[in-house]
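User: I'm putting together notes for a lab meeting next week and I want to include a structural view of one of the chains we've been expressing. I don't have a solved structure, so I'd like a prediction I can at least talk through. The sequence is below, exactly as it appears in our construct file.
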Amino acid sequence: MRKFAIAAAFTASTLALAACSGAEESAPAADETAATDTVEAEAETASVLDASTATAEQLAGIDGVSDELAAAIVAGQPYADVTAFNAKLLETLSAEEAAAVLETVFVPVNLNEATEEQIRLIPGMTDKMVHEFEEYRPYEDMGEFNREIGKYVDEAEVARFRNYVTL
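Assistant: Thanks for the context. Below is the predicted structure for the 167-residue chain, given as structure tokens.
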């Protein structure tokens, strides 16, 4: 009986070790997957051009931006803010078309100084998020923005918002 108990304890220890080592091997893979997903999400959202510095060639490659509109955007550079840029877009585009262009061409909004109207022009902005953006002012750095806004949306959405804001 004593031999059986020792054998059982040894087997249990071996199984526990095997289970732990298996978990350790899969844990880095999960971390690597999460890191890869984060990098991919940031790469997808990093394609927003600054309307005040974009070239006509860069702008012409954007859906909804004709060569004529690209030339008009460049002629109006630099833009005082996103509302001025939006006004330029509305000279030739409908509100829906302008909103679609703002997803990829934007004038960054200063988190500490922006008006509600400027914040509302950030693509995907809701009334609740406008309130949250304003509530945490002044932001000391982008880390604070990430923490505070991250309370309401996931990391991918925070990363997407960062493409449209500055300090």
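A couple of points you could mention at the meeting. Confidence is low (pLDDT under 50) at residues 1-45. The two ends are 73 Å apart (CA to CA).

User: Perfect, that's what I needed.
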